[in-house]
Automatic annotation (TrEMBL):
It comes from Cirrhinus molitorella (mud carp). Keywords: ATP-binding, Cytoplasm, Helicase, Hydrolase, Nucleotide-binding, RNA-binding. The keyword Disulfide bond does not apply. This is RNA helicase. It is found in: Cytoplasm, P-body. GO terms for molecular function: ATP binding; hydrolase activity; RNA binding; RNA helicase activity. It catalyses: ATP + H2O = ADP + phosphate + H(+). Belongs to the DEAD box helicase family. DDX6/DHH1 subfamily. The keyword Cytoplasm applies.
Amino acid sequence: MENPVILGLSNQNGQMRGSVKPAGGPGGGGGGSQTTQPAQVKPSSTVNNGNSQPAPTANTIIKPGDDWKKNLKLPPKDLRMRTSDVTATKGNEFEDYCLKRELLMGIFEMGWEKPSPIQEESIPIALSGRDILARAKNGTGKSGAYLIPLLERIDLKKDSIQALVIVPTRELALQVSQICIQVSKHMGGVKVMATTGGTNLRDDILRLDETVHVVIATPGRILDLIKKGVAKVNQVQMIVLDEADKLLSQDFVQMMEEILSSLSKQRQILLYSATFPLSVQKFMNSHLQKPYEINLMEELTLKGVTQYYAYVTERQKVHCLNTLFSRLQINQSIIFCNSSQRVELLAKKISQLGYSCFYIHAKMRQEHRNRVFHDFRNGLCRNLVCTDLFTRGIDIQAVNVVINFDFPKLGETYLHRIGRSGRFGHLGLAINLITYDDRFNLKARVERRLNCEQERSPIFCPLFPPCFLPYCV
């Protein structure tokens, strides 16, 4: 067997190419024809720092009497089936919220035809200026729920930072900034900046010398810029905590307290997440003023994600994975491991089996993380092996299979992992490889905890008939 070809600058860049089996095929484990050439980074204003605004398009000028909707460049209509997670709405339209026409243009050109349930509940309340504590499932439109009212309230006559969006990971910051830029592209000059750790601080300082209206940041970097007096946040009127449960965990809560203390007392706070532990309740009592509470979590898991498990030994895991690749119709898959070392070892093994894969974890250089994230989002590889770095908010519509190669230790982690599949009401699979040592986490920390909240029958069922995976119990 030949050695796998490593792409890019070094063997640590997270991109590996299988060298034995032809890519593609019915099972879909390989990269297909789209990965026959080394992945190249396409120019993008948001891949490195998210600071640039796209050039105005010709259809931003609407003459009196024009039917402005006819001039929109709409994406192809998504005809896939959607579940009630996003279709069980009250029947509202985006036009019902009296939004600026330029903002509506960006919304429709994103392919957002009608508001999802979380957007219906959240947008009018956020526009009123009230604090919000919102709980909704992964992949149901939370980003749009806060970005739409945030952009509507931006005053272009002011040259100050007016809104902060805080997220726990660099990849999520880049993703949210890209969405924000795209939605606001017709609004005539909304300046959006993404700033994260691992990037050049000098570039951020120079950028903040110019006009910035919206900053999307990770906690450590924005706090550093505030303390240096570079990021002037005294006129911030809205702060959003996306994935609030993570931001208010022990890893970040002290930073969040310091950031909040730098803002005006009149600011509006919006908290969004799929899970809310007691730490969120404590923060809410201290900082939010009569918050409007939204809870769309009658059940925890997405209706479109079918969950399976297979009992295997540690030595059988790779063989099981190989079988899944050969039998399943995979658009794109995300495979989770519990450590950076296991991520790299598994990615190497997958490439030796003949399948193309990328890998990503927090110990990689930031430029390589950016490249992997960007290329995987653009469909240049079918399989991604990662740590829990990728569990928070990452929205890649083509992902229809999530595999827990290593079973998570916490129920919240499990919930966020499987939420990478079945985005926005589409169908997906979550497959868990369970060893004898995982049985406690499966029963006590996942099944019982989630079922206790759902008050329903167990969420797991046998994976496949014995003829498919003969070692499954």
